[in-house]
UniProtKB/TrEMBL annotation:
Belongs to the glycogen phosphorylase family. GO terms for molecular function: glycogen phosphorylase activity; pyridoxal phosphate binding. GO terms for biological process: glycogen catabolic process. Gene3D superfamilies: Glycogen Phosphorylase B (3.40.50.2000). The keyword Glycosyltransferase applies. InterPro entries: Glycg_phsphrylas, Glyco_trans_35, Pyridoxal_P_attach_site. This is Alpha-1,4 glucan phosphorylase. Transmembrane segments: none annotated. Keywords: Allosteric enzyme, Carbohydrate metabolism, Glycosyltransferase, Pyridoxal phosphate, Transferase. It comes from Kineothrix alysoides. The lineage of its organism: Bacteria, Bacillati, Bacillota, Clostridia, Lachnospirales. It catalyses: [(1->4)-alpha-D-glucosyl](n) + phosphate = [(1->4)-alpha-D-glucosyl](n-1) + alpha-D-glucose 1-phosphate. It is an enzyme of class 2 (transferase). The modification N6-(pyridoxal phosphate)lysine is found at residue 661. Phosphorylase is an important allosteric enzyme in carbohydrate metabolism. Enzymes from different sources differ in their regulatory mechanisms and in their natural substrates. However, all known phosphorylases share catalytic and structural properties. Allosteric enzyme that catalyzes the rate-limiting step in glycogen catabolism, the phosphorolytic cleavage of glycogen to produce glucose-1-phosphate, and plays a central role in maintaining cellular and organismal glucose homeostasis.
Length: 824
């Protein structure tokens, strides 16, 4: 069947456009052009196909004047645009054919595009999935972020160690972006605040003696799937305000000009590559205020073009704060309303508190943003005054509700102990606070944010995360996508709950075989990728057991590799024991300064090196560390996975979204009852997942009341003892037996038990090993495994970001869908 949109895509025009672009851009024929040049030419041709829809959508927004959500985020982990845009234009078939006719392979061309890696991990990728869903569902939305010159670093592995290489993603230009200098905004830093009383007796606050930066927007199209909607991701670049006018400089001006130039250059230079760890860096606060001030100014200016009364701003605009990073938006909006539109405090507060909503993405206390007053007030003097006043009023409110309870103020104040607490600001001033999975939201309400929940329970809600099936199934796993469409039609592409129709195939032997055959082909594709990138041969008939995510102690890659060491010990001791061949696959970036994380990467590679080259185990175990895990290779990895490792310490992983991508591609979850795993198991049934380990309640109880001693496990469990000793006796570090001692110490610190094994790795070890045995047994039952895998796909419908977005719309944003007029 030919799709409607495919019909409307003019293949011949597209071909002519590609050839023309190659000629005018590079003065070359198709035969002479390099793959990169063809990628550029193809992208410009696709952009042509997008631009009309983009204009129509924006004109319609102008006309219909709907309420808009501004998704404010320091991170958008978009990955590659070309393939996704082609898919969402429903033009994959004609484009593929056209390129074939031009003698070009579409996959090779897509591979030329660098990932847009303007994010660290889950939080940034969630933002990207949300934009895809918003456009596909037809909701008016803007993404607002930063156009970092360097995105997430590229990871190279040398001698088993991670090396960070700068990610110069704009090197060859970005064919999809549109520079829009006419919408530039000025952002001011530093200086001091003067108060002038005007003729009406009104106080006017003016920031003076400041430095400023020009924010220049670049717009990227966000193409909805097959609906003609194209929304915008607006990312801001920084430019110095003044150019050098050398002749007119006295010394002071010159100094200031140089400083302003440097400020502009530094601000957008690089994405902070820390995930979940706050360091209090001045430049990061500058980045935050830079893109927030520009975005809020733009939103207000846009509103005022069509409206008279700024006091009704919230009727047309809502700001969703992606974690606390954009929280300064609250004070910035107050500032603009009061200082530029002369609203009173109460009027401005009424608007602001109906405009801003906050999403929490972690309970890890290291991630909480708390700015020293000195820094905050020096950089943002006027904004700080406003935060002080918000705090003063909030503390007064606490006192009214809990008279004499100083403890409450200590725990809840926005400014306390010399610090500005951004989460408290967001909760006190926003109209909505949400967690990202049911368990996570419950923990927020009962533990981390308990006092706030008690004081304002109505603000709190859960919005379980989701992922876009357009990228992670339709684009990433075309074989499975076609198989599904063949059996149940293509409606799942925009309504993932339709996948339940696959349930009837779970017991159908022919379907099982087809399904496992597709998995096998995807495993061959990944095996080829691994051979090309790692030089390691892996057997696609082995179980592909995969853990890909950021490296963090709470995610427990260490538990995984310790268990592999244990399996290897067993195989060495009992060469004849039954063992189903396994390929353990890791992919993970570690924050550059995170010692134990980096050492874990080294350990994985060292163990891999030893095991992969030990002929005596006949290749029964392979360990592969995939270099530079990112969105584009993730798509290939999920499609090829049998086992999805989701083994975080219960209570620590707010949601996880990789878990959902694996499930959608038919992998079986091996996990703890953490984050969204809980809901995955609820959907697919306990018998189709393998669950192990402490519950979140148990973890929290140990954390609050003590009673866990890892030494006891070390003393009583010889398997554990053996692998731990191998960390410090040079088994995997011949030349430096002490190399892995910090990891050993993190588990067993004999000096202070309270600081040992904070993530309960030894506590969960036995239970994990048992669970891994169950995985092996389950895999041996071919039909049973195929059944479970199909059921995982069939039950993954809940985890579409389309569902998540519909919940945000209904409970928080209250948007209406925009309908485009029929084409004349
Ligand atoms: C925090 C910080 C702290 C300051 C330094 C830079 C930085 C960069 C990113 C973050 C965000 C950490 C929170 C985060 O990524 N949470 C993840 O959010 C996912 C989407 O909701 C969720 O699936 C993951 O479980 C959660 O860890």
């Amino acid at each position: 069947m030919i799709k409607k949109a495919a019909l409307s895509f003019d293949k011949d025009l597209f071909k002519r456009s590609v050839v023309y672009n190659v000629k005018t851009l590079y003065r070359k024929s198709m035969e002479e052009a390099t793959p990169q040049q063809i990628f550029q030419a193809v992208s410009y041709a696709i952009k042509d196909a997008i631009v009309d829809k983009w204009m129509t959508t924006q004109e319609e927004y102008e006309k219909q004047d709907p309420k808009m959500v501004y998704y404010l985020s320091m991170e958008f982990l978009m990955g590659r645009a070309l393939g996704n845009n082609i898919i969402n234009l429903q033009a994959h078939e004609p484009v593929k054919e056209a390129l074939e006719e031009l003698g070009v392979d579409i996959n090779a061309i897509e591979d030329q595009e660098p990932d847009a890696a303007l994010g660290n991990g889950g939080l940034g990728r969630l933002a990207a999935c949300f934009l895809d869903s918003l456009a596909t569902l037809g909701y008016p939305a803007y993404g607002c972020g930063i156009r970092y010159r360097y995105g997430m670093f590229k990871q190279q592995i040398r001698d088993g160690y991670q090396i960070e290489v700068p990610d110069n993603w704009l090197e060859n230009g970005n064919p999809f972006e549109l520079r829009r200098p006419e919408y530039a905004k000025e952002v001011k830093f530093g200086g001091y605040v003067n108060v002038y009383v005007d003729e009406n007796g009104r106080s006017n606050f003016k920031q003076e003696g400041y430095q400023s930066v020009n924010a220049i927007p670049y717009d990227l199209p966000i193409v909805g799937y097959g609906n003609g909607i194209v929304n915008t991701l607006r990312i801001w670049d920084a430019q110095p305000v003044e150019c050098f006018r050398l002749e007119s400089f006295d010394k002071g001006d010159y100094q200031k000009a140089v400083e302003q130039e440097n400020l502009a250059k530094n601000i957008v230079e690089v994405l902070y590559p820390n995930d979940n760890h706050y360091a209090g860096k001045e430049l990061r606060l500058k980045q935050q205020y830079f893109f927030i001030s520009a975005s809020v100014q733009a939103a207000v200016a846009k509103y005022m073009r069509k409206h008279e009364d700024i006091r009704r701003f919230h009727e047309k605009v809502t700001f969703q704060l992606n974690d606390t990073h954009p929280t300064v938006a609250i004070a910035e909006l107050m500032r603009i309303l009061m200082d530029e539109y002369y609203l009173t405090w109460d009027e401005a507060w009424a608007v602001t508190t109906k405009t801003c909503a906050y999403t929490n993405h972690t309970i890890m206390s290291e991630a909480l943003e708390k700015w020293p007053i000195e820094l905050f007030s020096r950089l943002l003097p006027r904004v700080y005054q406003i935060v002080e006043e918000i705090n003063r009023r909030f503390v007064k409110q606490i006192e009214q509700i809990y008279p004499g309870n100083h403890e409450k103020i200590r725990k809840m104040a926005i400014i306390y102990d010399g610090q500005v607490k951004m989460a408290h600001l967001a909760i006190a001033s926003g109209y909505s606070v949400n967690g990202v999975a049911r368990l996570h939201t419950e923990i927020l309400k009962k533990q981390e944010l308990r006092d706030f929940y008690e004081m304002m329970p109505n603000k709190f809600s859960n919005k379980t995360n989701g992922i876009t099936q357009r990228r992670f199934l339709l684009h990433g796993n075309p074989l499975l996508a076609d198989w599904i469409t063949f059996h149940i039609g293509s409606d799942w592409i925009t309504d993932l709950t339709r996948l339940t129709k696959l349930k009837v195939y779970a017991d159908d032997e022919k379907a099982q075989q087809e399904f496992m055959n597709i998995k096998y082909k995807n495993k061959i594709r990944l095996a080829e990728y691994i051979l090309e990138h790692n030089g390691i041969e892996v057997d696609p008939r082995s179980i592909f057991d995969v853990q890909v995510k950021r490296l963090h102690e709470y995610k427990r890659q260490l538990l995984n590799i310790l268990h592999i060491m244990h399996l290897y010990n067993q195989l060495k001791e009992h060469p004849e024991m039954p063992f189903y061949p396994r390929t353990f696959i890791f992919g993970a970036k570690a924050a550059a300064g995170y010692r134990n994380a980096k050492l874990t990467i080294k350990l994985i590679n060292a163990v891999g090196e030893a095991i992969n080259n030990d002929a005596s185990i006949c290749g029964k175990i392979k360990v592969v560390f995939i270099e530079d895990y990112k969105v584009s290779n993730a798509e290939i990895i999920f499609a090829a996975s049998d086992v999805s490792e989701q083994i975080s310490t219960a209570s620590k992983e707010a949601s996880g979204t990789g878990n959902m991508k694996f499930m959608l591609n038919g992998a079986i979850t091996l996990g703890t009852m953490d984050g969204a795993n809980v809901e995955i198991v609820e959907e697919v049934g306990e018998e189709n997942a393998v669950i192990f380990g402490l519950s979140s309640d148990e973890v929290i109880r140990y954390e609050n009341f003590g009673g866990y001693d890892p030494m006891e496990i070390f003393n009583n469990n010889s398997d554990v003892r053996k692998v731990l000793m191998q960390l410090i006796n040079g088994t995997y570090s011949k030349n430096d037996p002490d190399l892995f001692r910090p990891l050993y110490n993190s588990l067993l610190n004999t000096l202070s038990t309270s600081k040992a094994d904070t993530y309960f790795i030894l506590k969960d070890f036995e239970s994990y090993a048992e669970a891994q045995k169950k995985v092996e047994a389950a895999y041996r039952d071919e039909k049973g495994w195929a059944r479970s895998a199909i059921l995982n796909v069939a039950c993954s419908g809940k985890f579409s970001s389309d569902r998540t977005i519909e919940e945000y719309v209904k409970d928080i944003w209250h948007l209406d869908k925009v309908v485009l007029p029929l084409k004349k």
